[in-house]
Amino acid sequence: MQWTRKNAKRATWTVAIMGLLVAGGACSAYAQPAMPPDMSGASAAVPLEGDAVIPTKSMLGVLRDGGLLMIPIGICSFILLVFVFERATSLRRGRVIPRPFVRRFMEQLREGQLTRDEALQLCEENKSPVAEVFGAAVRKWGRPSVEVEQAIIDAGERVTNGLRRYLRLFNGVSTISPLLGLLGTVLGMIRAFNAIVNAGAMGRPELLAGGISQALLTTAAGLSVAIPALIAYLYFISRVDRLIISIDSLGQQVVDLISAEGQANRGNGRRAA
Predict the structure, then answer these.
(1) Number of domains in the chain
(2) Which of 87, 110, 193, 264 is deepest in the core (most CB within 10 A)?
(3) DSSP 3-state of 271
(4) pLDDT exceeds 90 at position 230
(5) Is 38 domain-assigned?
(6) Which residues contact 135 (CB under 8 A, 6 or more apart)?
(7) Phi and psi at residue 92, to the nearest 5°
(8) Phi then psi for 164, rounded to 5 degrees?
(9) Which residues, at least 6 apart from 182, have a Cβ–Cβ distance to it below 8 Å?
(10) Is residue 257 part of a domain?
(11) Rg of the chain's alpha carbons, rounded to an integer?
(12) Pair 156, 172: CB distance under 8 Å
């Protein structure tokens, strides 16, 4: 039975691959323009002269053809690269929520090995965002759980603002870059039409096509910067949200350990044991 299933899977994959090959051949055959029959009986068609050479340009040539607005678009691209690297480094989970510190801190709290001053000193020495939240909770050591939770909420808001630093810059780059590209395209098309009118070359469409192609370079450049900026913005926003959720969960555990209600419950449990 198992051998039969394997053969059936192999046959299915074989049929699927053959179908893809046939479909690809059909698509390629459909994409190639049909050549008119040669009345002289020759079987080979002579290629056009324009198809023999593919024009290429260097990056410097593309920037020069795009005009002055390629400069601010390039600046936006440089800023994006710098701050993507900075946020990728600053938002590492090991930096925001260092696992060795959190594990040791929580174990010592559960075992009753830390006093208020010792716990506060550990948090101040660590200096991570999660340690800042823990330190705010420790300052309310032995208070009702409502006060401890409020301290964690206030510290969490400060930490969230720090983690979301520079994220608006990504949003700004993703908004400004395509607008700069569109402005460059409009100015380039105006310049191309004026040149054609002044030269009296309305009967030469190749001049108009060349001017429009150069004008569209700024739009392509703006979109090439805006799309990665938007992707980076969404990615870092989701990472910050995940980190905040983890910090909130750990903060709630600290509340259960150091609040007045938590300490009373632990004392009752020890006496019962």
Answers:
(1) 1
(2) 87
(3) helix
(4) yes
(5) no
(6) 120, 123, 124, 155
(7) -65, 140
(8) -90, 10
(9) 218, 219, 222
(10) yes
(11) 33
(12) no
- State which amino acid sits at residue 52: A
Residue 105 lies in a domain: yes
Reported as half-sphere exposure (CB side, CA atoms, 13 A), residue 152 has a value of 28
In this prediction, residue 243 carries a pLDDT of 94
pLDDT category at 228 given cuts 50, 70, 90 is very high
Whether 69 and 190 have beta carbons less than 8 Å apart is answered as no
User: How much is the pLDDT for 152?
Assistant: 92
DSSP state of 266: H
Q: What is the pLDDT of residue 70?
A: 86
The secondary structure element, H or E, covering residue 259 is none
The set of residues, in sequence order, having a beta carbon less than 8 Å from that of 210 and lying 6+ positions away, is: 192
In whole angstroms, how far apart are CA 90 and each of 102, 103, 124, 167, 209?
Answer: 18, 21, 19, 12, 47
Q: Does residue 238 lie within any of the structural domains?
A: yes
Closest alpha carbon to 252 in 180, 146, 174:
146
Domain holding 83, by residue range, is 60-261
Which pLDDT score, from 0 to 100, does residue 260 have?
81
- CA nearest to 182, candidates 215, 229, 156: 215
